[in-house]
């Protein structure tokens, strides 16, 4: 079969993945400033799309990690099977299908981890265990996945505390924290920019990997400018289209995020993603943003963690990589049948996408599945209102008093017993 | 094989950058609130507030310059690319 046709199909699928990434994840960046009324929806969506576009041009470190690190294009193992574009196609298909499936079922997931899972699964099935460079996978994908949300969470926690401490007025005058609303236009823009630098680069990496694997590009050469441009446009278009969906579901319930808290969370998210992108860490931007939302929630007075919700989210994250690896692996196994296998994967994949899409249209989405993963993670922190805090303190004091009284009564009774004896 | 230094760099850069930006913006918000107080110097406080917001923007601009190799080459004279 014509190699060029396969490469074109892989690039098309990769750009589609990029589009869904923008549609699904990056548009969320603008949700908060729209909700607080700091910026009109139209402007916000356009701004997010433009910044995603700009962000995609800023750096290529993450793309280099993916194209030149994780997968050994020419494994030195005994298998001797090189990674071909068909295998990358299989891995991508695994990622896209897993992404759509989790979206349909409303499970927390990460597009990035689905992508890596699909690729790793396809590479292992297609070319053996030697095909994956595990130390790069560990140091540039798996460990950043654990560290970055934690780093962002700690940052958001400290930043929220700091913001409240600085703006607190001892005189009792209004602190006018609404001013953070305008700051959120700025911080959300930064988040959109950072999304562009990390997410769009993953697709650039995949396309470059495909070009290298098919012998159309040297392994050491930089990412082509047309690849950068295509990926930047795809994610920007996805963000723009996805933004309208966000606006439509906006009324249905964002977690209660105060402007000062949202600002702190977003600045932390953007800093963590930008710093990581620069060092070539391929992060899940959703996970970093979730870490920040939880951290900033904990930084507010009267916050408690709902460990059940937090655990459910973490479990979803853990599942993503291996699950997508299984789907990618199955697809790679089918492509081993040659040209026929490749077309079977392509047709089955498109059929699966259409089925999921139709199923999602039939099933009335309740607002829970419509709100983003990041908002879901906000639900992991319960912030008590002043009233609830007071009620809780009262109840605790009452319980303490009751316990003291009971103790006193018991002692009295014992004394009486002694006296009687 | 694992480059722990890189994680440390990400952590420190994230914390320092985020806290500086939030501190500067919060100070700006506070100064704007103070400017509304009775007897406070409106002009002075407002100027201070806008200076704080500018500092915010400058920190971000510096970060972007550090990340983009072409810009850091042109403006800072070196590139921190890996």
Q: Could you write a compact summary of the structure shown?
A:
The complex is a heterodimer of chains A (421) and B (82). Chain A is an all-alpha fold and 421 residues long.
Task: Write up what this structure looks like.
With 421 residues, chain A is mostly helical. Chain A has two domains: 3-383, no CATH class; 386-421. In chain A, 75% of the residues lie in helices and 1% in strands. The longest helix of chain A has 35 residues, at 386-420. Chain A is elongated and about 100 Å long. The N and C termini of chain A lie far apart (103 Å). The relative contact order of chain A is 0.18. Chain B is mainly α and 82 residues long. Chain B has helices spanning 4-35, 42-67, 69-76. In chain B, helix 1 (4-35) packs antiparallel against helix 2 and helix 2 packs across helix 3 (69-76). The longest helix of chain B is centred in the first third of the chain and has 32 residues, at 4-35. The chains are: A mainly alpha (421), B mainly alpha (82). The A-B interface holds A 58-59, 61, 135, 138-139, 143-144, 147-148, 151-152, 154-156, 158-159, 162-163, 166-167, 169, 171, 173-177, 179-180, 183, 186, 190, 193, 197, 260, 263-264, 267-268, 271-272, 274-281 and B 1-3, 6-7, 9-11, 13-15, 17-19, 21-23, 25-30, 32-33, 36-37, 56-57, 60, 63-64, 66-69, 80-82.
